[in-house]
Amino acid sequence: MAKSKSEILNDFQDFMGRHGGNYKEWYVGSAADPKAQLFNVHKFKKGDKGLFRQAVSEIQAAEIAEFFTNLGAKGNDGVTRDADFVYAYKRSSHTKP
Q1: What is each CA distance from 53 to 19, 50, 90, 93, 94, in whole angstroms?
Q2: How far apart are CA 76 and CA 68, in angstroms?
Q3: Confidence (pTM)
């Protein structure tokens, strides 16, 4: 179920704060299928720190990703067609940006 922009921003900020709040250690992006993006593209593994939320639209998802990249996170902040999910993960030596 889609969440509002402010709800997603709060969820991500709370999560990042609990797991190391330095935004430069995180990757934030948008995707149509966040699980596939995390595990297949970024090589996310069980036990890594990450989350995803469904936004109201692909534009809103891109705006949320852009918010975090402007704070120093790595990521994609452009609008991707049908990518209404926002995801974030804490980068590690085995993850791919």
Answers
A1: 17, 11, 16, 24, 23
A2: 10
A3: 0.93
